[in-house]
From TrEMBL:
This is HTH araC/xylS-type domain-containing protein. The chain crosses the membrane at residues 6-26, 38-59, 65-89, 110-132, 152-170, 191-212, 224-244. SUPFAM superfamilies: Homeodomain-like. The keyword Transcription regulation applies. GO terms for molecular function: DNA-binding transcription factor activity; sequence-specific DNA binding. The keyword Nucleotide-binding does not apply. InterPro entries: Homeodomain-like_sf, HTH_AraC, Tscrpt_reg_AraC-type_HTH. Residues 268-370 form the HTH araC/xylS-type domain.
Length: 370
C-alpha cells in the first residue's frame, strides 16, 4: 500500500508530466504565438522543478550515474519565471508585444540557476581528466546548499515582477472586447502572488539553519510544490482556452465576403501609407470613413475581427513606424524625440511614450541608443 509521501510524489510526477504535455501543445498553437510561447516556458520551468523534487524524493541517487545526472542536469530554473510572467501578460493584453534584444537583459539572472550545474560539469570533466579526485567533492550537496540560499534572490525576483505586472494591469484601459482577457491576466498574476506568499512562509524557516532540517523533516517541500501542481493544471487549461476564445480570428460575418475584407484592408492601408492620414493628430474613425467611402460598420468589423486591433491601435501602429523610420534616418537633428513624435501624428507625449513602449517593449530613448 502506498504511503502518504509516495502518494504525494506520484501526484507531483503526474503534474510534471501534464506540464510537459501542456507546454508542448502551447508551443504548437498558431494563435497569438508570442503569448502562448511565453506561457509554455513558464509551465515548462515549473514542471522541471516539480520533476526535480520527484527525482530527489523518489529516485535513489547513490549510484554514480544518478549522481552525475543530478549534478549536471539543470532542472531548477526559476529566475526567468518572473520576467516571463510580465511579458506573457503584456503580450496577452497587446498582441504586438515581443521579447526583443532590448528585453533580454531581464533574463540574464538565469546564470544564478545555471551556475552550480556549469561548475559541476567543469569538476566532472576535471575528474575524468584526472585533474581532480572524484570523491573529493560532493556535487549534489553543493547544488543543494547553493539552491537553498539562491532561493532568496529567486523569491525577490518573482515577487518584484509580479508587483510590476499588477501595476501594468492596473494601468491597462479595459474595453468591452478584452474584458475576458483582462480578467484572466489579473487572475493569472494573482495566482502567482498567492504562490509567492506560500513560498515565503516556507522559505523563512528553511533558510534558518536551526529550523531548516526540522521543517524538511516535518513537511518537506510539499507545501510549496503541491500549489505548483495546481498552478500547472490551472495555467494550462485556462491559458489554452483563452488562446482559442479570444485570439482565434472571429468567424467572418456572412455579410462580408473575402473581397470586401481584402478591399477594405487595402483601402485602410493606402489611407495610411499613401495618403498618410495618421499624421493628423485628431484623426477620427469618421474621417477615415469619409476618406475611403467605406461604412463605419465594415471598417470597424475588419479592424476588430480580422486585423484584431482597435482603431487607435491601428493608427498608432503607423505613427510608431513613421517615428522609428525618421529616427533611424537621422534627418531631424533639430527636433527632440517628442518633436518627432508630434510630427508623426501623436498629440501627447504621455500617449506617445506609452504607445511606443507597449508596441516595442522599449522606450523611444532605448530604441534611439540601440
Amino acid at each position: 500500500m502506498l504511503s502518504f509521501k509516495q502518494f504525494l510524489n506520484i501526484i507531483i510526477l503526474l503534474g510534471a508530466i501534464q506540464g510537459f504535455i501542456t507546454s508542448f501543445l502551447l508551443f504548437r498553437i498558431k494563435l497569438n504565438t508570442k503569448a502562448n510561447t511565453l506561457l509554455a516556458w513558464i509551465i515548462l520551468f515549473i514542471s522541471l522543478a516539480c520533476f526535480n523534487l520527484y527525482f530527489i524524493e523518489a529516485i535513489t541517487l547513490n549510484t554514480t550515474f544518478w549522481v552525475i545526472i543530478g549534478a549536471v542536469l539543470p532542472l531548477v530554473i526559476i529566475m526567468p519565471i518572473g520576467p516571463l510572467i510580465y511579458f506573457y501578460v503584456k503580450a496577452t493584453l497587446n498582441t504586438n508585444t515581443a521579447v526583443n534584444k532590448g528585453n533580454r537583459k531581464h533574463f540574464y539572472s538565469v546564470i544564478l540557476d545555471l551556475f552550480p550545474y556549469i561548475l559541476s560539469l567543469f569538476l566532472i570533466i576535471c575528474s575524468i581528466l584526472g585533474l581532480l579526485e572524484s570523491n573529493t567533492f560532493d556535487w549534489n550537496n553543493f547544488i543543494y546548499q547553493y539552491n537553498k540560499y539562491v532561493d532568496i534572490p529567486r523569491w525577490i525576483s518573482l515577487t518584484a515582477y509580479i508587483i510590476i505586472t499588477l501595476k501594468m494591469i492596473a494601468r491597462f484601459k479595459v474595453q468591452n472586447r478584452n474584458k475576458e482577457v483582462y480578467n484572466w491576466v489579473r487572475q493569472f498574476t494573482m495566482g502567482f502572488l498567492i504562490f509567492s506568499i506560500i513560498w515565503l512562509l516556507h522559505l523563512i524557516p528553511y533558510i534558518i539553519p536551526y529550523f531548516s532540517n526540522k521543517l524538511l523533516g516535518a513537511v518537506g517541500w510539499y507545501p510549496v510544490y503541491m500549489p505548483l501542481i495546481v498552478l500547472i493544471y490551472w495555467l494550462g487549461i485556462n491559458g489554452y482556452i483563452i488562446s482559442f476564445k479570444h485570439f482565434k480570428t472571429a468567424k467572418k460575418d456572412k455579410n462580408l465576403s473575402n473581397k470586401i475584407i481584402v478591399d477594405t484592408s487595402k483601402a485602410l492601408e493606402n489611407a495610411m501609407l499613401i495618403d498618410e492620414l495618421f499624421l493628423n493628430p485628431n484623426l477620427k474613425l469618421n474621417d477615415v470613413v469619409k476618406h475611403t467611402k467605406i461604412s463605419q460598420k465594415i471598417i470597424s468589423e475588419v479592424l476588430n475581427q480580422h486585423l484584431g486591433k482597435s482603431f487607435n491601435e491601428y493608427v498608432n501602429g503607423f505613427r510608431v513606424e513613421a517615428f522609428k523610420k525618421r529616427l533611424l534616418e537621422n534627418k531631424d537633428k533639430n527636433l527632440t524625440i517628442t518633436g518627432i513624435a508630434f510630427e508623426c501624428g501623436f498629440n501627447s507625449q504621455a500617449t506617445f511614450q506609452r504607445t511606443f513602449k507597449s508596441m516595442t517593449n522599449m522606450t523611444p530613448k532605448e530604441f534611439q541608443q540601440q
